[in-house]
Predict the 3D structure of the following.
Amino acid sequence: MNMTSCNPMIEDYFFQLEAKMTDLPAADRQEFTRELRAHVLDRLEQVAVASEADCRAALKALGTPDEIARQYRLERIMNRSAWRLSPLPVLRTLLRWTVTGVQGYMVFMVAFTGYAFAACFYIAALLKPIFPHNVGFFVGKDGLNLADWPLPHGVAVLDAYFIPIVIVLGYLFTVGTTLLIRSLMRHFGKLKQKI
Amino acid sequence: MPLLRNTAKSEASEKWEAQLRKGCLELAILASLWGQRLYGLEILRLLEENSNLVLAEGTVYPILGRLKDEGLLQSEWVEADAGHPRKYYWLTAAGRQKVVSMAHFWSSFATNLNQLLKPVLNGRGRS
C-alpha cells in the first residue's frame, strides 16, 4: 500500500478532529484518535495503491470530524459521568458545558448550590471538635444555625449526634447533587442529540 | 405547499429511522462480538453485512468506548505480523449477560410488533 498521496488529507482530517476535542483529557483523546487512524489504515489497506479518491472515500465513510467529536462527547456525557457517584468526573464534564450555553450555566448553578451545602456540613463536622460550644444545631428565634461566634444564639439540640448527622447530611447532599446534575445533563444531552 | 409538506414528512421519517438505528446499534455491536474477538473494522463489516445500522463509521468507536467503560466489553491493542496494531474487543461476563437479556427483549418486542404490523403490510382493512 502506498499512502504518500493520502497522508496530507489524513493528517488534515485528524488535525480538525483533535481541534474539536481539545477540551477532553489528552489520554482519552489520543486513544480514540489512534483507533480511528487504525480504522482508516485498515480501510486503505484494501487497495494496493491508495489514491486520493480512495482516501477521500475512507474519510467520508468515517464521518465528519464534527459528527464524530459530537458523538464522542455525547457518549461521555450520557455515560462516563453517569455511572459514577464521584462528583469529579461529573464536574469536569459540567465545567466544559458551562461555557457552552445557558443550559450548562443553569446546571452549574444547581451543582454549585448543592455542593456548597454539602461542603458546609463537612466543614461543620470538622469544626465541631475544635469549637464545641460554637458549632452545633442551635434553634433560636431566627431559625436554625450551624455555627455562631462569639456565643451561639438559641438552644443546642442533638449535640451528641451532631458530627454523624452533618456527615450524613453532607454525603446526602453530595450524592443527591451529583445524581440531580447527572440526570439534568443526560436530559439536556438527549435534547442536544435531537437538535 | 404539498411539496413542503412532503419534505417535512420525509424529514420526520428520516429522524425516526435515525433514532431507531441508534437505538439498535448497541445491541448489534454487542451481538457481533458474541463468541469472538473483533477489531473495529471487522465489527463494522459484520454490521454492514447483516444490517443497515451504521451511517457514519466513526460513530461506532465512541459507543465501543462507552460499552467498555460500562464493563460490558474488554479491549486490547494487538500488534499485527504485518501492518499496524489493531484494538480488539470482546464481551465480558457482564456483556454476555446483557446481550442475552437484550436479545430476548428484542425478540419478543419484534414478534409482538410484527403481529401488529401484519395487517398494515398486507394492506387489509384500509379505511
